[in-house]
Amino acid sequence: MRRTCSLKGASVHARRATSPLPTRPPGAIVSGHMISRRGFVGGSVALLTAPRAAGAQQAEKVYRLGLLSLTPTPNLMEAWRQGLRELGWIEGENLLVEARFSEGVDARFPEFAADLVRLKVDVIVAVSDPAVHAAKQATTTIPIVMAAGTDPIASGFVTSLARPGGNITGMPLFSDELTAKQLQLLKEMIPGVSRISVITATAWDAGLRAWGAAQVAAPRLGLMLRRVDVNVPDDIEQAFTSMSRQRPDAILATPTTVVYVHSTRIVEFAARNRLPAMYSFRETVHAGGLMSYSTALPDLFRRVGSYVDKILRGAKPADLPVEQPTKFELVINLKTARALGLTVPPWLLLRADQVIE
pTM for this one? Predict the structure, then answer.
Protein backbone atom coordinates (compact mmCIF):
# COMPACT_ATOMS: atom_id res chain seq x y z
CA MET A 1 0.00 0.00 0.00
CA ARG A 2 1.25 3.48 -0.79
CA ARG A 3 0.95 5.94 2.08
CA THR A 4 1.04 9.71 1.75
CA CYS A 5 2.84 11.87 4.29
CA SER A 6 1.71 15.48 4.70
CA LEU A 7 4.48 18.04 4.34
CA LYS A 8 3.24 21.57 5.09
CA GLY A 9 0.43 21.47 2.59
CA ALA A 10 2.20 19.20 0.10
CA SER A 11 2.34 15.44 0.01
CA VAL A 12 5.13 12.96 -0.49
CA HIS A 13 4.37 9.38 -1.35
CA ALA A 14 6.03 7.09 1.15
CA ARG A 15 7.15 4.75 -1.61
CA ARG A 16 8.58 7.36 -4.01
CA ALA A 17 9.14 11.10 -4.06
CA THR A 18 10.76 12.85 -7.03
CA SER A 19 11.81 16.41 -7.75
CA PRO A 20 12.18 17.10 -11.50
CA LEU A 21 15.08 19.18 -12.71
CA PRO A 22 14.16 22.80 -11.94
CA THR A 23 14.57 25.81 -14.22
CA ARG A 24 14.91 28.21 -11.33
CA PRO A 25 11.32 27.89 -10.02
CA PRO A 26 10.25 29.61 -6.80
CA GLY A 27 9.82 26.19 -5.20
CA ALA A 28 10.50 22.50 -5.69
CA ILE A 29 8.16 19.87 -7.10
CA VAL A 30 7.83 16.62 -5.21
CA SER A 31 5.55 13.94 -6.59
CA GLY A 32 3.77 16.55 -8.66
CA HIS A 33 3.03 18.96 -5.80
CA MET A 34 4.53 22.47 -5.66
CA ILE A 35 5.94 23.54 -2.33
CA SER A 36 8.16 26.43 -1.28
CA ARG A 37 11.86 25.89 -0.78
CA ARG A 38 11.64 26.88 2.87
CA GLY A 39 8.57 24.69 3.38
CA PHE A 40 10.07 21.56 1.88
CA VAL A 41 10.32 18.81 4.47
CA GLY A 42 11.01 15.28 3.32
CA GLY A 43 11.96 13.09 6.24
CA SER A 44 15.54 12.23 5.67
CA VAL A 45 15.57 13.92 2.19
CA ALA A 46 18.87 15.60 1.42
CA LEU A 47 19.50 18.73 -0.57
CA LEU A 48 22.10 18.95 -3.26
CA THR A 49 23.82 21.18 -5.84
CA ALA A 50 26.76 23.35 -6.69
CA PRO A 51 27.63 26.01 -4.11
CA ARG A 52 26.72 29.63 -4.73
CA ALA A 53 30.26 30.69 -3.91
CA ALA A 54 31.66 28.64 -6.79
CA GLY A 55 32.40 30.07 -10.21
CA ALA A 56 29.56 31.05 -12.52
CA GLN A 57 29.93 27.97 -14.70
CA GLN A 58 29.71 25.61 -11.72
CA ALA A 59 26.88 27.57 -10.10
CA GLU A 60 24.70 27.01 -13.14
CA LYS A 61 24.89 23.24 -12.80
CA VAL A 62 22.13 21.43 -10.95
CA TYR A 63 23.25 18.31 -9.10
CA ARG A 64 21.01 15.36 -8.39
CA LEU A 65 20.90 13.62 -5.02
CA GLY A 66 19.50 10.15 -4.47
CA LEU A 67 18.10 9.42 -1.03
CA LEU A 68 17.39 5.96 0.40
CA SER A 69 15.64 6.37 3.73
CA LEU A 70 13.10 4.82 6.04
CA THR A 71 10.42 7.44 6.41
CA PRO A 72 10.12 11.24 6.30
CA THR A 73 11.30 12.71 9.60
CA PRO A 74 10.90 16.52 9.62
CA ASN A 75 13.34 17.49 12.38
CA LEU A 76 16.16 15.45 10.83
CA MET A 77 15.43 16.92 7.42
CA GLU A 78 15.60 20.42 8.81
CA ALA A 79 18.96 19.66 10.41
CA TRP A 80 20.23 18.37 7.08
CA ARG A 81 18.89 21.39 5.21
CA GLN A 82 20.57 23.70 7.70
CA GLY A 83 23.94 22.02 7.21
CA LEU A 84 23.65 22.25 3.44
CA ARG A 85 22.40 25.84 3.47
CA GLU A 86 25.47 26.82 5.47
CA LEU A 87 27.57 25.43 2.63
CA GLY A 88 25.61 27.14 -0.14
CA TRP A 89 23.46 24.23 -1.37
CA ILE A 90 19.90 25.39 -2.02
CA GLU A 91 17.14 23.00 -3.03
CA GLY A 92 15.32 24.31 -6.07
CA GLU A 93 18.30 26.36 -7.24
CA ASN A 94 21.30 24.09 -7.49
CA LEU A 95 19.84 20.94 -5.95
CA LEU A 96 17.51 18.17 -7.14
CA VAL A 97 16.27 15.42 -4.82
CA GLU A 98 15.24 11.89 -5.77
CA ALA A 99 13.87 10.34 -2.56
CA ARG A 100 12.78 6.76 -1.89
CA PHE A 101 11.21 5.73 1.44
CA SER A 102 10.95 2.09 2.50
CA GLU A 103 8.48 2.59 5.39
CA GLY A 104 10.33 -0.13 7.26
CA VAL A 105 10.25 -2.70 4.43
CA ASP A 106 13.96 -3.29 3.89
CA ALA A 107 13.28 -5.50 0.85
CA ARG A 108 12.34 -2.36 -1.10
CA PHE A 109 15.82 -0.85 -0.89
CA PRO A 110 17.47 -2.90 -3.70
CA GLU A 111 14.79 -1.82 -6.18
CA PHE A 112 15.05 1.80 -5.05
CA ALA A 113 18.85 1.77 -5.25
CA ALA A 114 18.79 0.35 -8.77
CA ASP A 115 16.33 3.08 -9.76
CA LEU A 116 18.65 5.81 -8.46
CA VAL A 117 21.57 4.32 -10.38
CA ARG A 118 19.49 4.36 -13.58
CA LEU A 119 18.77 8.03 -12.94
CA LYS A 120 22.52 8.68 -12.73
CA VAL A 121 22.37 10.62 -9.49
CA ASP A 122 25.57 12.35 -8.41
CA VAL A 123 25.50 11.12 -4.81
CA ILE A 124 23.40 8.62 -2.85
CA VAL A 125 22.68 9.33 0.81
CA ALA A 126 21.71 6.07 2.52
CA VAL A 127 20.01 6.09 5.92
CA SER A 128 20.35 2.77 7.82
CA ASP A 129 22.45 -0.34 7.21
CA PRO A 130 19.93 -1.98 4.83
CA ALA A 131 19.91 1.18 2.70
CA VAL A 132 23.73 1.34 2.59
CA HIS A 133 23.91 -2.37 1.73
CA ALA A 134 21.45 -1.95 -1.15
CA ALA A 135 23.32 1.06 -2.51
CA LYS A 136 26.64 -0.78 -2.24
CA GLN A 137 25.23 -3.69 -4.24
CA ALA A 138 23.81 -1.35 -6.88
CA THR A 139 26.93 0.72 -7.65
CA THR A 140 30.67 0.80 -7.15
CA THR A 141 31.13 4.21 -8.78
CA ILE A 142 28.45 6.60 -7.50
CA PRO A 143 29.53 8.08 -4.12
CA ILE A 144 27.50 6.83 -1.16
CA VAL A 145 27.20 8.81 2.07
CA MET A 146 26.12 6.84 5.14
CA ALA A 147 23.73 8.50 7.55
CA ALA A 148 22.81 6.67 10.76
CA GLY A 149 24.18 3.25 9.89
CA THR A 150 25.72 1.22 12.71
CA ASP A 151 29.31 -0.10 12.42
CA PRO A 152 30.63 0.34 8.84
CA ILE A 153 33.70 -1.85 9.33
CA ALA A 154 31.78 -4.75 10.88
CA SER A 155 29.14 -4.39 8.16
CA GLY A 156 31.80 -4.55 5.43
CA PHE A 157 31.05 -1.09 4.02
CA VAL A 158 34.56 0.35 4.49
CA THR A 159 38.02 -1.08 5.05
CA SER A 160 38.97 1.45 7.72
CA LEU A 161 37.61 4.63 9.28
CA ALA A 162 40.61 6.75 8.29
CA ARG A 163 40.70 5.53 4.66
CA PRO A 164 37.35 4.01 3.64
CA GLY A 165 38.89 2.78 0.39
CA GLY A 166 35.81 2.53 -1.82
CA ASN A 167 32.81 4.64 -2.80
CA ILE A 168 31.30 4.78 0.72
CA THR A 169 31.93 7.19 3.59
CA GLY A 170 29.81 9.21 6.02
CA MET A 171 28.47 9.46 9.55
CA PRO A 172 27.29 6.15 11.11
CA LEU A 173 25.78 5.85 14.57
CA PHE A 174 28.11 3.19 15.99
CA SER A 175 25.00 2.30 18.00
CA ASP A 176 26.26 -1.17 18.98
CA GLU A 177 28.54 0.51 21.48
CA LEU A 178 25.59 2.29 23.13
CA THR A 179 23.65 -0.85 24.05
CA ALA A 180 25.45 -1.44 27.36
CA LYS A 181 24.95 2.21 28.35
CA GLN A 182 21.23 1.97 27.55
CA LEU A 183 20.83 -1.05 29.83
CA GLN A 184 22.83 0.68 32.58
CA LEU A 185 20.59 3.77 32.43
CA LEU A 186 17.48 1.62 32.48
CA LYS A 187 18.82 -0.10 35.61
CA GLU A 188 19.51 3.28 37.20
CA MET A 189 15.99 4.42 36.42
CA ILE A 190 14.47 1.22 37.88
CA PRO A 191 16.92 -0.45 40.30
CA GLY A 192 14.65 -3.46 40.80
CA VAL A 193 14.39 -4.33 37.12
CA SER A 194 15.68 -7.79 36.19
CA ARG A 195 13.81 -9.20 33.15
CA ILE A 196 14.29 -7.27 29.90
CA SER A 197 12.73 -7.97 26.51
CA VAL A 198 15.13 -6.82 23.79
CA ILE A 199 13.43 -5.91 20.51
CA THR A 200 15.88 -6.27 17.64
CA ALA A 201 16.22 -7.57 14.07
CA THR A 202 18.62 -10.48 13.81
CA ALA A 203 18.04 -10.80 10.07
CA TRP A 204 20.62 -8.01 9.86
CA ASP A 205 24.15 -8.06 11.29
CA ALA A 206 23.45 -4.80 13.14
CA GLY A 207 20.59 -6.41 15.05
CA LEU A 208 22.74 -9.42 15.91
CA ARG A 209 25.53 -7.15 17.16
CA ALA A 210 23.09 -5.18 19.32
CA TRP A 211 21.81 -8.42 20.83
CA GLY A 212 25.37 -9.63 21.41
CA ALA A 213 26.32 -6.38 23.14
CA ALA A 214 23.26 -6.64 25.38
CA GLN A 215 24.18 -10.19 26.35
CA VAL A 216 27.69 -9.11 27.33
CA ALA A 217 26.42 -6.25 29.51
CA ALA A 218 23.53 -8.10 31.17
CA PRO A 219 25.38 -10.27 33.76
CA ARG A 220 27.20 -7.40 35.48
CA LEU A 221 23.90 -5.49 35.70
CA GLY A 222 22.01 -8.49 37.07
CA LEU A 223 19.68 -8.63 34.08
CA MET A 224 18.01 -11.56 32.32
CA LEU A 225 17.33 -10.91 28.65
CA ARG A 226 14.79 -12.31 26.20
CA ARG A 227 15.18 -11.57 22.50
CA VAL A 228 12.20 -10.51 20.41
CA ASP A 229 12.84 -10.42 16.66
CA VAL A 230 11.12 -7.81 14.51
CA ASN A 231 12.60 -8.19 11.03
CA VAL A 232 9.58 -7.12 8.94
CA PRO A 233 6.47 -5.07 9.82
CA ASP A 234 4.32 -8.18 10.08
CA ASP A 235 6.48 -9.33 13.01
CA ILE A 236 5.24 -6.50 15.25
CA GLU A 237 2.06 -8.15 16.48
CA GLN A 238 3.85 -11.45 17.09
CA ALA A 239 6.45 -9.52 19.07
CA PHE A 240 3.75 -8.07 21.30
CA THR A 241 2.33 -11.56 21.87
CA SER A 242 5.78 -12.87 22.78
CA MET A 243 6.42 -10.05 25.24
CA SER A 244 3.03 -10.57 26.86
CA ARG A 245 4.06 -14.18 27.52
CA GLN A 246 7.53 -13.19 28.73
CA ARG A 247 6.11 -10.71 31.25
CA PRO A 248 9.25 -8.53 31.31
CA ASP A 249 9.98 -5.75 33.78
CA ALA A 250 11.06 -3.45 30.95
CA ILE A 251 11.83 -3.22 27.22
CA LEU A 252 14.96 -2.27 25.29
CA ALA A 253 14.25 -1.27 21.67
CA THR A 254 17.38 -1.39 19.50
CA PRO A 255 17.92 1.04 16.55
CA THR A 256 16.78 -1.26 13.74
CA THR A 257 14.68 -0.14 10.79
CA VAL A 258 11.33 -1.77 11.59
CA VAL A 259 11.59 -0.76 15.24
CA TYR A 260 12.21 2.85 14.21
CA VAL A 261 9.38 3.06 11.69
CA HIS A 262 6.88 1.38 14.02
CA SER A 263 8.15 2.85 17.28
CA THR A 264 4.79 4.51 18.00
CA ARG A 265 3.13 1.08 18.13
CA ILE A 266 5.80 -0.10 20.56
CA VAL A 267 5.21 2.98 22.73
CA GLU A 268 1.47 2.24 22.74
CA PHE A 269 2.08 -1.40 23.70
CA ALA A 270 4.39 -0.35 26.53
CA ALA A 271 1.81 2.14 27.82
CA ARG A 272 -1.05 -0.41 27.73
CA ASN A 273 1.05 -2.92 29.65
CA ARG A 274 2.63 -0.34 31.98
CA LEU A 275 6.13 -1.30 30.85
CA PRO A 276 9.06 1.13 31.08
CA ALA A 277 11.19 1.12 27.95
CA MET A 278 14.53 2.42 26.73
CA TYR A 279 14.61 3.57 23.11
CA SER A 280 17.34 4.52 20.65
CA PHE A 281 15.76 7.67 19.21
CA ARG A 282 14.56 10.76 21.04
CA GLU A 283 11.60 11.12 18.64
CA THR A 284 10.16 8.02 20.32
CA VAL A 285 10.32 9.70 23.73
CA HIS A 286 8.55 12.75 22.32
CA ALA A 287 5.85 10.31 21.16
CA GLY A 288 5.36 9.05 24.74
CA GLY A 289 8.23 6.65 25.35
CA LEU A 290 9.93 6.71 28.75
CA MET A 291 13.56 7.40 27.86
CA SER A 292 16.21 7.24 25.15
CA TYR A 293 19.97 7.34 24.97
CA SER A 294 21.51 7.76 21.56
CA THR A 295 23.67 9.69 19.17
CA ALA A 296 22.25 13.18 18.72
CA LEU A 297 20.70 12.59 15.30
CA PRO A 298 20.00 16.23 14.34
CA ASP A 299 23.69 17.00 14.88
CA LEU A 300 24.70 13.94 12.87
CA PHE A 301 22.40 14.76 9.97
CA ARG A 302 23.60 18.36 9.86
CA ARG A 303 27.17 17.13 9.59
CA VAL A 304 26.28 14.65 6.84
CA GLY A 305 25.79 17.67 4.59
CA SER A 306 29.52 18.38 4.76
CA TYR A 307 30.23 15.04 3.05
CA VAL A 308 27.82 15.88 0.25
CA ASP A 309 29.48 19.26 -0.11
CA LYS A 310 33.02 17.85 -0.29
CA ILE A 311 32.06 15.16 -2.80
CA LEU A 312 30.33 17.62 -5.10
CA ARG A 313 33.44 19.80 -4.96
CA GLY A 314 35.52 16.89 -6.22
CA ALA A 315 36.58 14.86 -3.16
CA LYS A 316 36.59 11.06 -3.40
CA PRO A 317 34.71 9.00 -0.77
CA ALA A 318 37.74 6.72 -0.47
CA ASP A 319 39.75 9.65 0.90
CA LEU A 320 37.12 11.09 3.28
CA PRO A 321 37.48 9.59 6.78
CA VAL A 322 34.38 8.13 8.41
CA GLU A 323 33.50 10.32 11.38
CA GLN A 324 32.43 8.92 14.71
CA PRO A 325 29.63 10.63 16.65
CA THR A 326 30.79 13.12 19.26
CA LYS A 327 27.46 14.18 20.73
CA PHE A 328 25.09 11.90 22.64
CA GLU A 329 21.87 12.67 24.44
CA LEU A 330 19.73 11.27 27.24
CA VAL A 331 16.05 12.21 26.97
CA ILE A 332 13.47 11.45 29.70
CA ASN A 333 9.70 11.83 29.56
CA LEU A 334 8.53 12.76 33.08
CA LYS A 335 4.87 12.52 32.13
CA THR A 336 5.36 8.90 31.08
CA ALA A 337 7.38 8.17 34.21
CA ARG A 338 4.53 9.48 36.39
CA ALA A 339 2.00 7.41 34.44
CA LEU A 340 4.11 4.32 35.16
CA GLY A 341 4.38 5.22 38.84
CA LEU A 342 8.13 5.81 38.59
CA THR A 343 10.18 8.39 40.45
CA VAL A 344 13.13 9.44 38.34
CA PRO A 345 16.31 9.62 40.46
CA PRO A 346 17.53 13.24 40.81
CA TRP A 347 21.02 12.41 39.51
CA LEU A 348 19.46 10.95 36.35
CA LEU A 349 17.46 14.12 35.77
CA LEU A 350 20.63 16.18 36.16
CA ARG A 351 22.37 14.08 33.54
CA ALA A 352 19.49 14.33 31.06
CA ASP A 353 19.98 16.53 28.01
CA GLN A 354 16.23 16.98 27.69
CA VAL A 355 13.37 16.41 30.13
CA ILE A 356 9.85 16.31 28.72
CA GLU A 357 7.20 17.40 31.20
Answer: 0.76
